[in-house]
């Protein structure tokens, strides 16, 4: 039975207002979503189906066995080429960064330990060697890394320092005599912690440490640098290194996270990944980037792909949950409603539509926004010449999208679990693993709140030249030193607000005259909010610091506004991506369907913050109520399309599991 | 170091407005929270400390072993008397229902498989025999149940019927010849599902089934009744019963959930739990309650204690998470802020205060509201005579508090996990288990959305005599048949709105003139919202059905308003409980501290729905912004008290685990 057949009659026929329910061509939507990388995504789907058993193994194996199993799957998948898409072809890679993101995202449909181990090995570890190293490092390691012959880890985070990486405690001191670095962990707060691949499998590690040069009195510190270091030889931890298992985790137990201490480990001078700085044999420090902060952030910036990938993974994990919950909601009946003696399917309840369908629309929105970020990543990293401004914009956008995408995953998976009732609590459905495994997404690869502060810093300083050298307090002082209007006028959104308003009827009264379904109205609202919030933060910082208050105390008080502004900025980018994509479609049912989703996303986003719009004079109480009614009406229109819209995600049936929820027969997943 | 010492100077000294930061006497707050059952709660705390190892076993044992371990702990705890508080003393119980709720709630500080197994055995299974059976059943079973010698299960839910229990498919047909009931599972949708204790340990089951009497043509169905049935003999499943393990679950894997099929199982006539209906040997059906729907809901109503207990458990699980996150937030430093060269502790960041402190205030609010519900439960069930109205009010209140308390648990645990960053992801902290184990609380013992519909039904019909006989559509039709004013005027909140307004300055302009910190203003706001929402639902139902629309379609469209009204009602009751409790305190620091929390709870509750208040003319945009500023100011005032306020929950250090987060030394949990 299709969703259309189950929908109440009124939804599928022509309504009084001339609205005709569109037919969704599932494959056409999937072509749109898969974008230029359909082939890559299908390769990953094939791999996922082949290894679908790993989802069951996650439940049934001991942790030790499951770690080995995940390693096997990762290495096997590496053989298909899907995990090496982003590496140069000369080392066995695919030479296509966009493809590597598409592959990684799609991998998130399956077991997430596999995903994260792939991310650690090829994204973080391999990526660091590629981005921070030079040809000798590439020649020495990349072919083995890409093939999965050499496993490695990315030893950045320390117990005492997660978000504030510049304050790491591990030290690498250059010994001129021996022409070696001596790596040491000064205290337990400086041990490397939560490091994926460290507890069991990594032979090599990229270690981030403070680089010191010179004798005791004349010692000079040059900030955090990365070194490629052997931590295991034939599976045994080498002398000078101590490793401890982090033990069981909420999820992702197929990944061997560990702690590492260095006890004066000696590594050759060439261990320094020296793309951005080198130490000559005689101990001279040379870098093309003079400023230490700027150098540090430039190095970190090359690792942005990790954030792009985690954001995409979160969005795709949400798709799995939605696919199960929506399909269940058109099968499950509970309580009599419209038809006598027959219970009503869940998705015909208004509340159930409200719970699931705005999340479905938002998943489409985030998918399309993520496609833009991935495209920018591809461009920035495929270009020969460095475009500093494009790089900063990308870093900011990746940070914002990662935050929104991963929070969306947490929220969507939880809502979908609850929407499947007690049945959703069984592990044979995907929710148990999805919840447990994705939980850390909001705080790894950058804590979401810290990432949004980074976004805000960019907005407020207009990515000024000195942008990368500022910490939060530096940013607060910088902004306080400018006129509020200057801060606002320098933002990209400032011009956009004006241009979109000119397209709307009503002049200054655009917010009252324009139709709720006019995308220019929707964009104008989000742009107005962003601009106003940036101005508000600038005003508050200026006021507090101008009155001589302690900048730290002022920042602490304004922090929620700072984060709200960053969120508003990212929400605006997400909606722009959705609007632009639907605008590009030819007229027809596909466009009608995507427009419905886009409207639902836009209006439910405005609705969620309608208090703010009312407080700031951009939404009357009457219009606010009309907006809520429109969201409900859009839910009813999307409802008959819902199953097709989740099917278009292309999550293979084999990885959905959920035999009871989805009514698979004994012979396997048959619809 | 105490929290006070770590707080910024400005917070602890006298401020310009004469505000003096109170000192919190942790023990005095704990006396207040523990209430009349401090002794019982301390008994449970002692049990929890003694069995703290079970938290580690949950991680390290196989599922089969852990189930046995949990069984052992439950039986051992039964020996201390803490699990039998609610049973009559003649069967070894404590004869004190309030004490049994207090004991159960406190048990939620520890491993939640133990909690849920206690709930299944003593609450659901034992409770059903106590409430639905008569003296012969009590004499036959209760002493063994209370002592934990006979384990049982509560076989109500079926695969096809979770929320709509009246539509269960299992049938018990009376065979006059044999004077036996024949229990049968007609199809797989009617198998009993997710039944705790069923997969391994239950010897007996209370089975809910449609009671049929008579031969094929003349067969009469009397609705759902409960039977006490042996399903295992010496650990072996008996003939006529088939049991299947539900397999691994998201959490609570120490509880053996299973499915049960009955294949014509014959049980004696006396197996019927016959407090509300009996079948004579010759097959006559007798009941003091004529109406079948009313009888069914009366029977179900006696089981309300389960909901009260789950709500309390959710609130107490949230306390564990908050205790860890708040203590961590005054130890962990990240980024330089107020002091040069020293990073700032997390809880001095405005955003971190915003994330944790309103949740802390809400936990206090829900705790005190829960105490009222538990008190009403105690009164209703300790009374000799039946007070039908009090019973209905209790059922409604228990449903609403359970929904809010369990959603609060899900949200709070998630926020606390994220507030502990990647470190919070390790299982050695409590978050992994807390998240996984509490996840089902929102959908078991009544799905939260369904429970809120029940609350709304009571509100909208004023618990009319025919209240229990109505399903959702019956309710919709009933309300549509009344004048909107009639619906509103009959509600309890109607008079309350007027009475509290009279206490406020400004007359009709009370919402503009009264101070934000005036509890009468806060109460007036929540009461106004509730009254207005009830009227709005009535108006919408009346309008739609009056225009001849299908009542099912109308209900579906109005459903989110129905649920919002129920939520508003419950929020009002929660705030009333908090305000009443603080009002009863003598002047002094304790009162000042509790007033701060109460204000923070009240204003953040209003703030969360400030859009609604603006839409309905009760909050100007200026006042709305002032309200947000006041919430921020309250957070800053509560911040120096936060550690003391979580310490007052009295969660034993031994069950907090979290050695790294809390900085325990090797010798154990030392502060």
TrEMBL record, chains A, B:
Residues 39-148 form the Acyl-CoA dehydrogenase/oxidase N-terminal domain. Its cofactor is FAD. Residues 1-16 have a biased composition (Low complexity). Residues 153-263 form the Acyl-CoA oxidase/dehydrogenase middle domain. Pfam families: ACOX (PF01756), ACOX_C_alpha1 (PF22924), Acyl-CoA_dh_M (PF02770), Acyl-CoA_dh_N (PF02771). Residues 1-20 are annotated as: Disordered. InterPro entries: ACOX_C_alpha1, Acyl-CoA_Oxase/DH_mid-dom, Acyl-CoA_Oxase/DH_mid-dom_sf, Acyl-CoA_oxidase, Acyl-CoA_oxidase_C, AcylCo_DH-like_C, AcylCoA_DH/ox_N, AcylCoA_DH/ox_N_sf. Residues 301-460 form the Acyl-CoA oxidase C-alpha1 domain. It comes from the Bacteria. Keywords: FAD, Flavoprotein, Oxidoreductase. Transmembrane segments: none annotated. Residues 519-659 form the Acyl-CoA oxidase C-terminal domain. Belongs to the acyl-CoA oxidase family. This is Acyl-CoA dehydrogenase family protein.
